[in-house]
Write a structure and sequence with these properties.
This protein is an alpha+beta fold. The chain is 60% helix and 13% strand. A hairpin with a 3-residue loop joins β6 and β7.
């Protein structure tokens, strides 16, 4: 810090040394001034020593404010404006005034941004709820005339719209997941079967069979958000499975004693260079480009929710063979930080 301070005061030091050199040169040229060389050297030494003491004194005075500002920058908090060091010089007062104005301006902008986002979320949530009403009416009509062959195709398209609307509703709730989170013990296969029934029309349309393997296992998780993750994984499995294929849902126990739900399809698989990015927002990969309906949001949302509620997602895939995604559920104590 001292070197930086001296570098900032280079002009002062250069001016002092040039002034001292000028006086020495004047004494040497002017024969009317008779001072011994030893006295001139003594005088220069005293002046340089005095300048050194002066610079050291100013360094201590001026760097006190700088040190406090540096410490504040390293430990900045929400009330950082109140923690600004007391200014002593005019430039310090001007700096404090500027920072206070910037802080107030930023707070106003942030408040306006939060208000706009809140209004947009409320509008989306209201719109989703309004759309759900006619969708529910359509589902009742489809159930009433289920024997009609054309309505089976309509039901499959209705399901796709329902899934997209439901996904949008969960997106609007994702930021406040912690306030809508409740732990309970529930059978993981029970949750999977619940989502399979939801996707049944789509599976029938593509003639996809679903096989359940392994024994039922109790896990501690949030019912609603866990179902959302399973729904995203099953939706991807059905979407990318070939007609007449099979989806396997298996419950296993890992070597560490944790419960794992595995969803495996017989789709085209995922290229090795795409695997590290499949959870990125908006990433569709080679298969997604072939599927015009792919949005790149399903796995991103599943990973985001899984991270928040303490579930680990793992993916294994081979081209032209299929994809296997595992959901690992940990012991109860790992969920405690999510609730706080």
């Amino acid at each position: 810090m001292l070197i930086r301070y001296l570098a900032d005061r280079t002009s002062w030091i250069v001016f002092f040394l040039l002034s001292l050199l000028f006086v020495d040169l004047l004494i040497w040229i002017d024969h009317g001034i008779t001072i011994r060389t030893e006295s001139i050297l003594y005088l220069n030494l005293m002046l340089i020593l005095s300048m050194t003491v002066f610079v050291g004194w100013r360094f201590g005075k001026e760097m006190k404010y700088v040190r406090m500002m540096s410490n504040l920058a390293q430990q900045i908090d929400e009330d950082w404006i109140e923690m600004l060091p007391s200014p002593k010089y005019y430039n310090e007062k001007a700096t404090n005034q500027l920072l206070q104005e910037v802080g107030r301006w930023y707070s106003r902008k942030l408040s306006d941004s939060h208000a706009a986002q809140s209004m947009e979320k409320d509008y989306i949530a209201a719109w989703v709820h309004e759309v759900k009403a006619p969708l529910t009416a359509m589902k009742l009509m489809i159930d009433t005339h289920r024997s009609h062959p054309e309505l089976r195709k309509v039901e499959s398209e209705w399901l796709r719209i329902h899934l997209l609307i439901d996904q949008q509703l969960y997106i609007s709730r994702l930021s406040s997941l912690e306030s809508d989170y409740r732990l309970e013990q529930i059978g993981i296969q029970q949750l999977a079967l619940q989502e399979i029934r939801e996707l049944a029309p789509w599976c029938v349309e593509k003639n996809i069979a679903v096989e359940i393997e392994g024994e039922e296992a109790l896990v501690t998780t949030d019912h609603k958000w866990c179902c959302f993750i399973i729904r995203q994984l099953l939706t991807n499995a059905v979407k990318y499975s070939y007609t007449g294929g099979t989806i396997w849902i298996t419950t296993t126990v890992t070597p560490d004693g944790h419960i794992q739900l595995i969803i495996k399809d017989e789709g085209p698989g995922i290229a090795a260079h795409d695997l590290p990015r499949i959870f990125d927002k908006g990433f569709t990969g080679e298969n997604g480009r072939l599927q015009n309906a792919a949005t790149g949001l399903g796995l991103y949302l599943a990973q985001a929710v899984a991270f928040k509620i303490g579930i680990t997602l793992t993916v294994q895939s081979d081209l032209h063979i299929g994809t296997k995604i595992g959901m690992t559920f940990y012991s109860h104590h790992l969920f405690e930080p999510v609730q706080t």
